[in-house]
């Protein structure tokens, strides 16, 4: 089982509720338990976010099952590739328009994240 508890937060009552929620096959009961768990974490406030950043995520149409996660970066548990679609995808080769030393013009002229960050749009 994976955990993102980098703060080593611990609350025995919360642990019991989460264990019960994971074991329950009753959806309504699980939802009730998770709401209780959220309330405990909100009351305890085990960490404070001092900084948050914005970022953009782009992915190819042959990447399926990927959904940006509100907290975790690169949460790829359910992601998969359609290899046949990948073979025929337009722009399958990398393109580095506007990036010094890596310029290779492409017909579809994508705008890379680095080019956007550097303010060098093709």
Could you outline the blueprint of secondary structure elements for this entry?
Elements: H1 12-23, H2 27-44, E1 63-64, E2 80-81, H3 83-88, H4 113-118
Antiparallel strand pairs: 1-2
Helix pairs in contact: 1-2
Q: Could you walk me through the main structural features you see in this protein, from its secondary elements to its overall organization?
A:
There is one protein chain. The chain has 122 residues and is mostly helical. The protein folds into three domains: 1-52; 57-89, no CATH class; 92-122, no CATH class. 34% of the residues lie in helices and 3% in strands. The chain is built from four helices and two strands; from the N terminus they run H-H-E-E-H-H. It has helices at 12-23, 27-44, 83-88, 113-118; strands at residues 63-64, 80-81. Helix 1 packs antiparallel against helix 2. The relative contact order is 0.09. Mean pLDDT is 76; it is low at 108-112.
Number of E-type strands: 2
Mean pLDDT: 76
Give the N-terminus to C-terminus distance in angstroms: 45 Å
Report the sheet-strand fraction.
under 5%
Query: Roughly how many Å is the radius of gyration?
Result: 21 Å
Helix content: 25-40%
Could you give a short description of this structure?
It contains 4 helices and 2 strands, in the order H-H-E-E-H-H.
